[in-house]
Design goal:
elongated, mainly alpha
C-alpha cells in the first residue's frame, strides 16, 4: 500500500476516534475529553490532507 493511502486511512481513523471522544466528553460533561477529541479530530483531518497531497505527488 502506498504512503499516501496509508496516511489517508490513518487520518480517517483519527477523525472518527476524535469525534467519539468529543461526543463522549460532551455527554459526560468532561471538557478535557471533549477538547482532546477536537484536537485528535483536527490532527486526523490534517493527516488525511497530507495523504491526499502525497497521492497527487506520486503520479
Amino acid at each position: 500500500m502506498k504512503t499516501g493511502t496509508k496516511d489517508q486511512i490513518a487520518g480517517k481513523l483519527h477523525e472518527m476516534k476524535g469525534k467519539v471522544k468529543q461526543v463522549a466528553g460532551q455527554a459526560a460533561n468532561k471538557p478535557d475529553l471533549e477538547a482532546e477529541g477536537r484536537v485528535e479530530k483536527l490532527a486526523g483531518k490534517v493527516q488525511n490532507k497530507v495523504g491526499k497531497m502525497e497521492k497527487v505527488l506520486e503520479k
